[in-house]
Amino acid sequence: LKMSWFWLYLPLHLLMATSLCHSIKAPTTSSQESFKTDLFNFYHSLILADGKETTVHLLKDIPKRYYFVLEEGRFLAPFSITVTPCDVPIEWSILVYKSPPAKATPGDHDTQEVSKSQKASSMVSTIFNYKGNSVETYMGMSSHSALYLLEFLSTERDTHITVYLTTDTTSGHLYPELPMDPRIDVIGIGHTTVTLTWKHSPSVLQHRESIQYCLLVNEKHNYKSLCAAETAIRSSGMKLPPTLALSLSPYLLEPQQVMILSNSELSIINKVSSGEVRQVCMGTKNTYTVPNLSPNTQYYFDVFIVNLLTNASAAYTGTFARTLEEPEPKVTELKDGKVVHVVLDGKKQKFYSLQYQARHKKIHFTFQLCRGQIQVHITRNGKTVASENLSGLRYFSLKGKLLDTYLVQLRSTEESNSSVKVQASPHFPLLSQGYKQSSKIYPESLKIKSFSKLRTCRSVTIAWLGTQEESKYCVYRKRIEEDQIWRELQSADRCSGPESRHKSEKVLCKYFYDLNLQRAVTTETIKGLEAGTLYLFDVYLFGPSGIPVRYHSKVVKTRKKC
């Protein structure tokens, strides 16, 4: 394309240069130097393509020049030039070189020389210049006898820009059109959401199938172009697909990117050092609620209207908003001896708070983990007295003063939901483990043991620990497949009782105890099983409190051959 332009306009360029040289025989020294510079600029410039967006890479403090002319025979033809800085502010200008006038009539030699010098200096003029990082468009009328030179300069650092020249102003635009009012309006603010709306682009009404809106959300600042936004994300150490509009394929995503597709909207979340940068393309909808934001955080919102056929875009005027402060977390009061069942949302990773005011000096806190993994943090009058991850049954005995205020904070450490039962009491706890008095009503371990040597094709033998107080134990079995083991063990609710089990899964119930803890062990042989089959065994303990405690599930496989 460049070569075709070059050969097309070579006669005109040579004619202009030759005319310039012959029109000045002996200019003054300053005029001569200026003219030499003009010729140097002309011969060291590149041709700017018409009707095509050109990417220009600029080195710091080194100007770069492009030129263009119109086709022969066109006179006073309209043209426009759009320059989009993709990073730092730049300087750019448009210079016009007019063809020299006809030769002067014979006359005074000195008068002719002065006249020629004045005409030479008037053959080049600057018609436009700009400094900044906004997208700027110049529109003008071009003469067939003029050559235009564009000069670009970056004084801050190496950067790149895009330049679009068109002499066809009647057959449509490369860039989508912005509405008369290109502002983004904030119509709703919540703790974790912001709702935005903007006026429709005229391009959406004309070319709905090839136009879409894309939203950029970040915590740093607004961007004046999609090109600038992509450059900023790349400079943060992330490789980004070429454009937001066409980077919607999962295989283009980098490890730091997360793609979310829901309700025909595609979001790409980039994890960068300055926070998340979210990109959302929502088709032709002009109202959108941004979800999953952080409370009390300022966000910047930019909307781009993108032409999917040309990949060109135009930017609305960006806006910003601060989400509302998160309300104080709800605090549930713990009452003496009352068991509270808490379900924690793993996705939100928030603390659930329980408060207890002591009416005795010694307080017992008991936690029975039902599902998942949970972190517990206990403070007394604002000072930490206990903090750890829960496993099974956990018991804390704390000594303080009357009317001390205890705050128990619970948080799921998994993405899935977790649940736990909590009890606070000045008396001996109903749910406890690991404390010397608790062995009377609860075992020291909730593990079920199986004996490999006692396995047969039709039976297995299991054992578990008992207590010093007579209690009821019920055994349940369930046939499972190999691919169900992990799911069954992970999803088991260790706080649920036998009422959640099918009647056909019940094997037996028995009572036993032993005052000597060394002998407080019971065994049971489960018969009537199938050979080479996996079974899930559960044991439930019913103590004096009446609250069932579930032992850890045990998976055993019968022998295939006997």
Tell me about this structure:
- This is Protein NDNF.
- Its main location: secreted.
- It is found in: Secreted.
- Keywords: Glycoprotein, Neurogenesis, Repeat, Secreted, Signal.
- GO terms for molecular function: heparin binding.
- This protein has 562 residues and is mainly beta.
- The chain has four domains: 101 residues, Jelly Rolls; 118 residues, Immunoglobulin-like; 95 residues, GOLD domain (Jelly Rolls), CATH 2.60.120.680; 110 residues, Immunoglobulins (Immunoglobulin-like).
- It is built from six helices and 36 strands.
- Strands 12, 13, 14, 15, 17, 18 and 19 form a seven-stranded antiparallel β-sheet that branches. A five-stranded mixed β-sheet has the order 1-3-8-5-6.
- Strand 34 and strand 35 form a beta hairpin.
- The N terminus is likely disordered.
In CATH, the architecture of the largest domain is Sandwich
Strand content: 35-45%
Q: Any low-confidence stretches, pLDDT <50, length ≥5?
A: 1-32, 116-121, 239-264, 432-439
CATH topology heading of the largest domain: Immunoglobulin-like
CATH class wording of the largest domain: Mainly Beta
Radius of gyration: 40 Å
Could you give the distance between the termini?
A: 84 Å
